[in-house]
Amino acid sequence: MPKPLILVTGANGQLGKEFNALAGSFPQNKFIFLSKDELLIDHFDDVKNAFKKYQPQYCINCAAYTAVDKAETEKELAWMVNAEAVTTLALVCKDFNTRFIHFSTDYVFDGNATNPYKEDDPTNPQSVYGYSKLQGEQDALQANTDSIIIRTSWVYSQFGKNFVKIMLKLMSEREEINVVSDQIGSPTYAADLAEATMQIITQLTIHHSPFTTHGIYHYSNTGIISWYDFAVAIKEISGGTCKINPIPTSQYPTTAKRPAYSVLDKTKIQQTFGIELKDWKESLKVCIQRIKEEK
Questions:
Q1: What is the DSSP string of 208-269?
Q2: What is d(CA 27, CA 268) in angstroms, rounded to the nearest whole number?
Q3: How far apart are CA 215 and CA 201, in angstroms?
């Protein structure tokens, strides 16, 4: 029996690179990694030709427009990548009987909750980025009801540009930094997200799932913290000496509005797929160690 083939889009992003790093641990699968230059995901014919060529059983879409503030002025580009291209991928997946897995964000919520958000809680994005990601979710599920959407939050990695790497850089350059302390959420180590996704694919393959596991799921590491708490932990783990000052959001204005509370309820993904969640601090230690080893 041939190995199930997984096509990964957005191969050069931080999540795409984590899947690439993980691929060797899943020899039961074949992988094709395509960057945005190798596959124009908003071009229907390009996507269809790639699917004809590779005949994937699964498509993991790691391509995304994630520049939250820039999206406020680059609306068309954000919409094209986060909504239109997602629709194209979902439609082609349906044509080829390929299972489509796509990632979304806590920014689909307004951040006014006081309890962790469940998958069916009302959405109310407060930014162009949030709206574009919500549209992508809705379009994917409308175009292909078998799609799996995984919403996540505060993603970081040893790859790409993210909060952990920015903090490490600033802490090495400055004696003092200010970090927002009134935005609450849960970090997600992209390597853990990639591993959880592969566990889902493994289960779908073993059980030949009669596509009843479609829809939206939430995933992040465990723990509820502020960005300030996150920065303090990065300092402690990396052995930094930089002073970190907690400040309110009002003292750090950004172009796009961020949710004040964006903790996600992960019960559904745990119960449906038996996913074990990892502690945010333990995962942060792993990531910082990997960043140190890279140098």
A1: T--S-S-EEEE---B--EEHHHHHHHHHHHHT---EEEEE-GGGS--SSPPPSB-PBP-HHH
A2: 28
A3: 14
Residue type, 246: P
pLDDT of res. 110: 97
Q: Is 129 a catalytic residue?
A: yes
pLDDT confidence of residue 209: 54
* Annotated catalytic residue, options 58, 129, 189, 228: 129
Q: Is the pLDDT of residue 275 over 80?
A: yes
- pTM value is 0.97
pLDDT-based confidence at residue 2 (cuts at 50, 70, 90): confident
Fold of 5-157+188-221+263-277: Rossmann fold (3.40.50)
pLDDT digits (tens, 9 = 90+) for 206-246: 876 555 689 999 999 999 999 999 999 999 999 999 999 99
Structural tokens at position 281: 């601090």
| CB-side neighbour CA atoms (13 Å) of 201 | 29
Bridge partners of residue 151, in order along the sequence: 104, 218
Q: In angstroms, how far is the first alpha carbon of the chain from the final one?
A: 42
